[in-house]
Amino acid sequence: MRFCTSPAAPVSGARSRLEGPSTRIDHPHRAAFRDSTTGARQKSVGSGSAVIGRREIIAEFLGTALLLACGLSAAIFNFSSGSPLLTLVPNDYIRRFLSVLLFSASATVIIYSPLGRISGGHINPAVTLAFFRLGKLTTKAAVAYIVAQFAGAVAGTAAVRFVWGARASNVRLGATLPGHAGIWVALGIETLATFLFMSLILTFIIRPRIAHFTAAAGGLFGIFLAFFSFPYSGASLNPARSFGPALLEELWATLWIYFVGPSIGAVAAATLFRNRIIPCGKLFHDSSYTCNFENCLYVANVASREASRPSGRDGRPRRGAQ
User: Fold this and answer.
1) What is the extent of the structural domain holding 176?
2) Residue 297: pLDDT over 60
3) Angle between helices 125-133 and 139-164 (to 10 degrees)
4) DSSP state for residue 237 in the 8-state scheme
5) Which of 164, 212, 195, 168 is nearest to 268 (CA)?
6) Where is it localised (predicted)?
7) Of the candidate ranges 106-120, 262-276, 298-312, the one whose mean pLDDT is the lowest
8) Are 197 and 261 in contact (CB under 8 A)?
9) β-bridge partners, 317
């Protein structure tokens, strides 16, 4: 079964490559990518009737809340004036590395957790905007996800303030603020860093052999990006991550940077990949969890295999049929 067709796509050359005797589909989901060599744009062939529901939205809310709770706690522990780590690790660069390491590790764990497997593990409005640009979310679903992410960020930040108390106030709840280079440099850094981050995510997602390592690769690359962007912009790459502390600390003057920069960067990366086949809107697709994203090729692939199984006398697929 072909999952993507286009009137303008070259048929003869692509067919010989895809259906010749040397073709090997040795990955359980590789069949869902068969038309990736044609360059044809993805069509609505997946879970057309699927709807993002309350379960996914709650998972996204909880995932973002956990990200802020863990990530901001790491920042407070590394930089608060009352933290023992200031004495144990006096080097500012090492503590910065530890902070971004724990933040990125938290995001990676959440994506691979049941919460991430349910919702797709976006936990970032910029990521949701990118998948909306790629047609993996309806307008209603994208809005619901973004609202859940911002609400989760506020809940996670409030929990951090409650737990850490005065120590959290010492570092303004880990708020992201522009560095000495100014707001325009901060805006440019946030835009570029998010563009590079989202480009790497999509580069992994479109390749079936490495798609399951998307979150891990994003986490490692996120450490690099955050470490070097920290002095210039505070290393946000996530509007929700900046919104939570800004709301509770009433830091409105430069919040727009962390809305505009990551959003532009993520959408620009999605536009770069708009003619590539994006199999799913999840950062980690687990077939044991329901997927309600638009045009999920994993779902379409499973459905086509089930439909093509030879039937027994009672009309049901034979057990063990390949």
Assistant:
1) 54-272
2) yes
3) 170
4) -
5) 195
6) Cell membrane
7) 298-312
8) no
9) 311
Considering the domain boundaries, does residue 300 fall inside one? no
Specify the length of the chain in residues: 322
CATH code, domain carrying 186: 1.20.1080.10
The answer as to whether 161 is a domain residue is: yes
CB atoms within 10 A of CB 19: 9
- With beta carbons less than 8 A apart as the criterion, state whether 75 and 167 touch: no
Write the Ramachandran bin of 309: left for phi over 0, alpha for psi from -120 to 50, otherwise beta. Answer: beta
pLDDT digits (tens, 9 = 90+) for 31-63: 444 443 333 344 433 344 457 889 999 999 999
8 A C-beta contact, residue 319 and residue 306: no
Q: What's the predicted TM-score (pTM) here?
A: 0.80
User: How many Cα atoms sit within 13 Å of 87 on the Cβ side?
Assistant: 3
Number of domains forming the structure of the chain = 1
Within-domain flag for 15: no
Within-domain flag for 86: yes
Judge residue 220's burial from the number of C-beta atoms within 10 Å of its C-beta, 0-12 exposed, 13-18 middle, 19 or more buried.
Answer: middle
For residue 86, the model assigns a pLDDT of 85
Coil, helix or strand at residue 317: strand
d(CA 146, CA 143): 5
